[in-house]
Amino acid sequence: MSLVELKVPDIGGHENVDIIAVEIKVGDTVALDDTLITLETDKATMDVPADAAGVIKEVKVKVGDKISEGGVIAVVEAAGAAEAPKAAAPAAEAPKAATPAPQAAQFAGSADAEYDVVVLGGGPGGYSAAFAAADEGLKVALIEQYSTLGGVCLNVGCIPSKALLHNAAVIDEVKHLAANGIKFNEPEIDINGLRGYKEKVIAKLTGGLAGMAKARKVDIIRGNGQFVGANHIEVALTESAQYEQATQTGEKKTVAFKNAIIAVGSRVVKLPFIPEDPRIVDSTGALELRQVPERMLIIGGGIIGLEMGTVYSTLGARLDVVEMMDGLMQGADRDLEKVWEKMNAHRFDNIMTGTKTVAVEAKEDGIYVTFEGEKAPKEPQRYDLVLVAAGRAPNGKLCSAEKAGVAVTERGFIEVDKQQRTNVPHIYAIGDVVGQPMLAHKAVHEAHVAAENCAGHKAYFDARVIPGVAYTDPEVAWVGVTEEIAKRDGIKITKSVFPWAASGRAIANGRDEGFTKLIFDAETGLIIGGGIVGTHAGDMIGEICLAIEMGCDAVDIGSTIHPHPTLGESIGMAAEVANGTCTDLPPQKKA
Ligand code: FAD
User: Fold this and answer.
1) Which of 488-492's residues contact partners 24+ apart within 8 Å by CB, and which partners?
2) Short-list 313, 335, 438, CA closest to 387
3) Is the bond leading into 437 cis (omega within 30 degrees of zero)?
4) Are 95 and 438 spatial neighbours (Cβ–Cβ below 8 Å)?
5) What local confidence, expressed as pLDDT, does residue 21 receive?
């Protein structure tokens, strides 16, 4: 082990360059090529990578300092030539491949209107970017091809699925009350009424967005926008009665922009061997609740499939699920997922992990599906409904971004830097189209960064972590470094767990199957991750996110007074476990 200075390499002759982000702190373990700091010159931002791996002993710079080639950034206790583990889970998995930049098209036509900012796509990313830019005093247009704003999230994603899941949770909750001496009759389910409720929820939210756009004087242009040059988008105007259905009117409008924000989102992945049949649906089709099947197959054991499966099962369907990976709900630690699986075993006839769907045939009496792999039944299985939830693909190739000179990867992602800038400095991209995780809260955060940069501020996407939640019953929520990530990346951690079997509130609720887990960096003692399984886990994970962002340790969290009796208390108590004494649990064994 030796101390090594990490210095600024050749940065093209730039001197006294602004440091706009410092990614390391004392105690972090850095690998070769991990980003240490980000610099900003007049022309570009650049990340400075580590040229030695090891543990950071001293950080010599801070945000706002200026630095030149050879300037010392930090001192590291070098771990030799071997690559050291990463300090933390990546916040956003932005695609990094250097995609060649296309030549922008020359647009010689004239524009119908000019804007400071044009946002392409009206999803949570797009409308948040447009509203934030308007709040900065900029003249903004928002182009959306469908009838309502809100994108996938409000129209066919987060919100309608939660409207249905809420009803399913109430039905299930009422059943649990039988054990407490309170019995209800079997619910009478009017599927049209339930669908109507979901539509009302969507209409309330999307209507609210239209009102907020008007209040901010954001021009909504209804149509499909395609770049025709580096400063112009041509919009083929559309008429649209509902989301995901639009017809072009034949009219066109060209808008000129100083800055553009691409927020075109993602679409459902279609599997090539699956025939067209009304009994085979994607998530949008499943949300339409056209029927309650007797036997339903979910292809893909991720969050979207399992959430929709929960709804259909509560309404009366028997479920099978097939997943190529070796477990459901990938991303969450297995101990969290196991609690969900145990509580939900009654919904499933067959959980086929490590198994592939190889053929799907539509016959008169049902959809016949053939599987291959670890848990594949020998014979094709018959289903009344098949939900294909095999992932989502980015829409980067569907807006002629190349005509603006914007590089799009082979898979359709648009690469951006920490300011959400594409390779064309006045064009930004946000949301699902820039990479995983494809989540609304990531899109909104990126939107604010892009809008602030359009307004001339220097803003960066510097979130340490992005939480994930499965809104199943029980809910499963996780953030930052999981035990799986720690194992994969060789991060030394300590963990503390508070079982809800000791939570007064969870017991009073009759739902004490869950637990709360905190994960700390073994060397610094700072919290770097956490997971919760149990009712309302998704509502509680934000506290762990905040603790990570603020660099808290177990004493900070354990000394924070949480209200009693709440499920949120379990976070404080898990921290007390880490501190060695939790008076709501039996005494811990002394080492
Ligand atoms: P999108 O929401 O995809 O919006 C993009 C918009 O751009 C669309 O309205 C589209 O019509 C428009 N557009 C595209 N191209 C053009 C063009 N050329 N011209 C004009 N308009 C165009 N995320 C969560 O965080 N929590 C959840 O609980 C959750 N649940 C989900 C449940 C389901 C069933 C699904 C499918 C998704 C869920 N998601 C959830 C994911 C979430 O919906 C997305 O991450 C989010 O909507 C992405 O926002 P976005 O702004 O990037 O794009």
Assistant:
1) 489/85, 489/86, 489/89, 490/84, 490/85, 491/29, 491/85, 491/86, 491/87, 491/88, 491/521, 491/528, 492/85, 492/521, 492/522, 492/523
2) 313
3) yes
4) no
5) 75
The whole-number pLDDT of residue 591 equals 64
Report which DSSP code applies to 431: G
Answer yes or no: is the C-beta of 283 below 6 A from any ligand 1 atom: yes
- The whole-model pTM stands at 0.85
Question: Ligand 1 centre from 151 Cα, in Å?
Answer: 5
Ligand 1 atom 47: the closest Cα is on which residue?
A: 153
> How much is the pLDDT for 64?
79
C-beta 264 within 6 A of ligand 1: yes
Nearest CA to ligand 1 atom 22: 121
The CB of 145 under 6 Å from ligand 1? The reply is: yes
**pLDDT band (50, 70, 90) for residue 86:** very low
Task: Name the helix (H) or strand (E) containing 140.
Answer: strand 140-144
Cα–Cα dist 529/549, whole Å: 10
Q: What token pair was written down for 189? A: 């389910």
What is the rounded distance in angstroms from the CA atom of residue 583 to the CA atom of residue 571?
14
Residue 260, burial from CB neighbour count under 10 angstroms (0-12, 13-18, 19+):
buried
Q: How far lies 161's CA from each of 7, 202, 238, 295, in Å?
A: 50, 10, 27, 20
Helix (H) or strand (E) holding 132: helix 124-135
Q: Is 374 left (phi over 0), alpha (psi -120 to 50) or beta?
A: alpha
What letter represents residue 64's amino acid? G
Per-residue pLDDT tens for 110-133?
999 999 999 999 999 999 999 999
Active site residue 564: yes
